[in-house]
Amino acid sequence: MTTAQLTLRSVTRRFADHVVLDRVDLTARPGERIGLIGDNGAGKSTLLRLIAGELEPDDGEALVVSPGGRSVLPQSVELPDGATVQDAVDLCWRELRALEHELHDAELALGTLATTPDPSPAEAAALDAGLEHYAELRDRYDARDGFGAPARLDAALHELGVGHLGRERTWTSLSGGERSRTALAAILAADAELLLLDEPTNDLDDDAWDWLLGQLRGHRGTVVAVTHDRAFLEAFTQTIWEVDAGSVARYGDGYAGYRAAKAAERERRRLAHEEWAAELARHRSLVESNAGRLDAIPRKLDKAGMGAGQFRARGRDHGAMGRIRNAKERIARLEDHPVAPPPEPLTFVHEFERGAPTSVPLEASSATPDAAMPPLVALLDVRVAAVRVERLELRAGERLLITGPNGVGKTSLLRTIAGEAAPDSGSVRVHGRVGHLRQQAPSTDRRRSLLEAYARGIRTDEASAADRLMGLGLFHGRELGVPVGGLSYGQRRRLELALLVSSPHDVLLLDEPTNHLAPELVDELEQALAGFEGAVVLVTHDRLMRERFAGRRLEVGQEAALTT
Questions:
Q1: pLDDT digits (tens, 9 = 90+) for 348-381
Q2: Does the pLDDT of residue 225 top 90, yes or no?
Q3: Which end of the chain is more exposed for a tag (fewer CB within 10 A), N or C?
Q4: Are 542 and 523 in contact (CB under 8 A)?
Q5: Which of 380, 391, 405 is nearest to 556 (CA)?
Q6: Distances (CA, A) of 363 to 531, 548, 559
Q7: What pLDDT is recorded for position 163?
Q8: Which keywords label this protein (predicted)?
């Protein structure tokens, strides 16, 4: 039975003048499975490090009690030059190694005390205390099955595809994926009660992903996992913590509960904005109608008359003016406290035919295109790196998913279709305007602000660009002035996405479009693609996106195989 306790009370953490987390209150139940989500740079890793004890809060209290130990999987394990794979394992096992050293020291102390002839009462008491301490250490070690850890490590390394790596190999000689999988294997083998995992599914193939899910489902303790992986959130988590603007919101009932709650929040925002707008319109109408009544009331009598007549005219005038004054005061209060509408859903615009939308769902992308229209993309006997495509045509409404091992040339093929590189051989023809979302953002002036970069990208003035950008809901107003060089990977990704949806295209080339995006935004991106009338070429490791895709698939390698 797990006994880990995790409570944060009014925790604030700053870096220089930047407040990352602001008065955060959180509690995790023993044995709870928690998914920690949010945009890049929002503070997810900072929160994880606070829970791990690697950081201290500037204000507030972080109470974490885990008798069965805690293990932390960072996004990358940094070691000095010359460090080996075994050094990395020992670092991931530092709690277990420390417990082993304590056991060894306790054994040596007991050996000395036990061999003392004719011990004094103090020595006998010390022996009893030493035996009790050793028993407590041994119980803790046995609770984690410390003696079984090496066998668990070998099994985990094998399942994650890095079992062939020698422990004497230098850490820097491993690829980034090999390092992350080795560290993950070591963390799981240590069998700590509290697991804190930062992007545990990165660099995993489908078999390794399934194995990891099984391991975590069988874990006896509490798990907090930072992840962008929607399939993992959907299959594993019970609770979602979302980090945004320094605060952390808690959602129950797993990822489905989170999505339902966010939809309800959006609907509440819509209704609140409509109520605000209707109230504002009503009071403006009151001002106009009463102003009209005032215009119809004579300011004075045409001829001198009795005072009663003058008094009646002034009385009617006074009532209308009072209503106008009250309405104007209400208008001022409403305008001082506006209720913003929810952001408009993302929409990809087709370049040529912009009539009534004819949605082509991503899940139903095998719909028959108009054969009379020329293909938007045509490849004939194309070779790019290790990719070979004999013949491929895409028309409006068609979707293509390109799959294959890393490094084979999927990104190079997209760049060739985009006209950014020439094929090694063969013919590539593209008809219409191409939008290309790259894995790495194109180079730009890093000193230019986010708003300046967006305005320049859509060729408009900054005031108009600010209105359009804020309407997308991809950024907070305080981010508009941040230099591009100071943006996180996720913010740069959102900038590229904003530019893509702000201009019409016929063909969308999407290279790992879900990288560095929060799960809610990925869901919205999928819906936007479903409504796009042009052609889509997609490269992705996103498990959920691949599972939902029902269009044509191109498996690339030495020979390309096209399936429907």
A1: 888 764 433 333 334 444 445 555 678 999 999 9
A2: yes
A3: N
A4: no
A5: 405
A6: 11, 6, 26
A7: 92
A8: ATP-binding, Nucleotide-binding, Repeat
Name the one residue in this structure whose structure tokens are 């944060």. Answer: 8
> For 373-420, what is each residue's pLDDT tens digit?
789 999 999 999 888 999 999 999 999 999 988 778 899 999 999 999
Euclidean distance between the first and the last CA atom of the chain, given in angstroms as a whole number: 49
Rounded Cα distance, 320 and 427, in Å: 77
CA dist 103 and 175 (Å) reads: 36
| Interatomic CA distance for residues 359 and 397, integer angstroms | 9
Answer for the pair 193, 222: CB distance below 8 angstroms, yes or no.
yes
Q: Is domain 362-563 given the CATH code 2.40.420.20 in the classification?
A: no
Topology at the third CATH level for domain 5-260: Rossmann fold (3.40.50)
User: Whats the size of the chain, residue-wise?
Assistant: 564
One-letter amino acid at 223 equals: V
- Written in H, E and C, the secondary structure of 349-371 is CECCCCCCCCCCCHHHCCCCCCC
Place of tokens 């209105």: 467
Instruction: Provide the total of helices (H) and of strands (E) in the chain, helices listed first.
Output: 16, 18
Are 426 and 379 in contact, with CB atoms under 8 Å apart?
A: yes
Contact 408, 557 (CB under 8 A): yes
Residue 102's identity, in one-letter code, is: E
Q: What amino acid occupies position 433?
A: R
Domains 5-260 and 362-563 alike in fold:
yes
Distance CA 147, CA 142 (A): 8
The values of phi and psi at residue 22, to 5°, are: -125, 105
For residue range 153-188, list pLDDT tens digits in order.
999 999 999 999 999 999 999 988 899 999 999 999
Distances (CA, A) of 142 to 3, 105, 145, 190, 489: 16, 17, 5, 12, 43
Contact 512, 440 (CB under 8 A): no
Q: For residues 555 and 539, give the distance between their C-alpha atoms in angstroms, rounded to a whole number.
A: 11
Q: Is 502 helix (H, G, I), strand (E, B) or coil?
A: coil
How far apart (Å, rounded) are the C-alpha atoms in residues 212 and 59?
Answer: 36
Q: Where are the domains of the chain?
A: 5-260, 266-336, 362-563
- Segment holding 19, helix H or strand E: strand 18-28
